[in-house]
Specification:
Number of strands: 4
Mean pLDDT: 84
Low-confidence stretches: 1-14
Helix content: over 70%
Distance between the termini: 60 Å
Structural class: mainly alpha
Strand order of the largest sheet: 1-2
Radius of gyration: 23 Å
């Protein structure tokens, strides 16, 4: 086995050299976890209250950390230390589970990827509108009606993504990842700084132990479920855990290093989330906006609010492609396998644009454009930030963060069946399933209710 392992380490077919450490993996985790979900944390705590809100943030962190350690053991199969490598989440599921479960995993992943594309389109457009409104308020006063349509801005965002989609392997370009990471930290810290400043200027702490109380019992229930979904979405990173682990050197064993990195990464993220959520709720109380930078709890300094929203837009321009490229690749592989000799699929055209050139096929141009246009159309129909985040969190949390890691772990340790640990794992999975279903229902109800009082395609709420 040792000899085979040595061969695998130097196999020329490997696509990269693994030099990662616990520190590089920790940075990747923090970068992957912190994103647009942080913008809804103050609103989420407002729905839950001080006690349940903080408990939910810590609880989701603990569940995510624990199931991530189980997933780290699935990087190799059948043994977590000496087995063959699984370089993607799907490969790991295929190594341990049945074809039906592999199919379920694929559906869960691609639904989540496409859902994130919809969510990112909505979030970027809301930030564009916020910049326009911020400048309007600064020029004409806070009492001015500065409402603005998001239709044109959303179409512009979609058009830019169509152009970006023609670049090959966009998700692997280093500058894109670096830009996205820098932008996500920038707007997160701007939101934190503005919240602290407002809290200090208030001179007292706002908020209640039980959160928002002036709503009907039904509305309160849906908002609580939606808030839980927002928090779940904020911790999502299971899909990329295996890929991060695949960058680690093999000594010490990758699963040991990854477990340490997960502890440090989730720990640091949780502290940051608690800081942002607590300061946001302390500053605004039950009036905390759904999006801390676009809800106009802050009017001044208007330029800093604009910079924060610009950072969101730049982050999502890149993040959108990271989620879109796997969908493009899967569809194009299926079509190429069906019609391998079609010129529409295989003939490459070159477009020279001054400093660079773009190579594309007609199939790639047409298919990717259609996918992005359909995504933009759906985003226009349901432009509701918190409800969409809640639904995305519910749809991805149980299957990808909880169910598959637990199921693969149980396959690894068959001898624990009916033992206390087995009962605990099954109970945890069942509890998270019930919660995900409830959160999904709450988010869908909120979307339906919002559609009754809004005008899709015209105004972003």
């Amino acid at each position: 086995m040792e000899k085979m392992e040595d061969i695998r380490e130097v196999d020329p077919r490997e696509e990269h050299e693994r030099k990662g450490t616990v520190y590089t993996a920790t940075s990747h985790i923090v970068t992957a976890v912190i994103g647009s979900g942080v913008l809804a944390l103050a609103w989420s705590i407002a729905q839950l209250g001080w006690i349940v809100g903080i408990f939910a943030l810590v609880g989701f962190a603990c569940v995510t950390y624990y199931t991530s350690t189980l997933l780290a053991d699935s990087y190799r199969a059948p043994d977590p230390v000496t087995g063959s490598r699984n370089r993607t989440y799907m490969t790991a599921v295929r190594s341990y589970l049945s074809p039906t479960e592999v199919y379920m995993c694929g559906v869960a992943q691609y639904v989540n990827l496409w859902g994130c594309m919809v969510g990112y389109t909505i979030t970027a457009t809301i930030s564009m509108i916020a910049i326009k409104r911020s400048n309007c308020f600064h020029r004409y006063g806070h009492s001015t009606d500065c409402n603005s349509s998001g239709t044109i801005l959303m179409l512009i965002f979609g058009l830019i993504e169509v152009i970006f989609s023609q670049f090959p392997s966009m998700e692997k370009i280093t500058w894109l990842s670096v830009m996205a990471a820098v932008m996500s930290f920038a707007y997160s810290f701007i939101g934190l700084g503005l919240s602290i400043a407002k809290w200090v200027s208030n001179g007292y702490t706002r908020g209640r132990l039980t959160g928002v109380t002036h709503l009907s019992s039904a509305k309160k229930t849906w908002n609580v479920l939606q808030a839980l979904g927002n928090i779940a979405f904020a911790y999502t990173f299971a899909e990329v855990l295996i890929e991060i682990q695949d960058t680690l050197k093999s000594s010490p064993p990758e699963n040991i290093t990854m477990k340490k990195a997960t502890l440090y990464g989730i720990g640091a993220t949780t502290l940051f989330y608690l800081s942002l959520g607590i300061t946001g709720y302390g500053a605004f109380g039950n009036d905390a906006p759904g999006n801390i930078l676009t809800g106009f709890g802050f009017y001044d300094p208007f330029w800093l609010v604009d910079i924060g929203n610009l950072c969101i837009i730049l982050h999502l321009f890149g993040a959108y492609q990271v989620y879109a490229q796997p969908i493009f690749a899967a569809i194009e592989m299926q079509i190429a396998a069906q019609w391998p000799d079609a010129k529409f699929i295989n003939r490459v055209y070159t477009l020279n644009v001054r400093l660079f050139k773009i190579n594309f096929t007609l199939s790639k141009l047409v298919l990717r454009t259609i996918i992005i246009l359909l995504t933009t159309l759906v985003a226009m129909m349901i432009p509701f930030f918190n409800a969409v985040l809640g639904l995305l969190g519910a749809l991805s949390f149980w299957p990808l963060t909880v169910y598959f890691p637990i199921k693969m772990h149980l396959v690894q340790e068959r001898d624990i069946i009916k033992m206390p640990k087995w009962i605990f794992l099954q109970s945890l999975s069942a509890f998270c399933l019930v919660m995900s279903i409830a959160v999904s229902v709450g988010s869908v109800v909120d979307i339906v209710s919002s559609l009754k009082i809004s005008t899709p395609f015209k105004t972003m709420g």
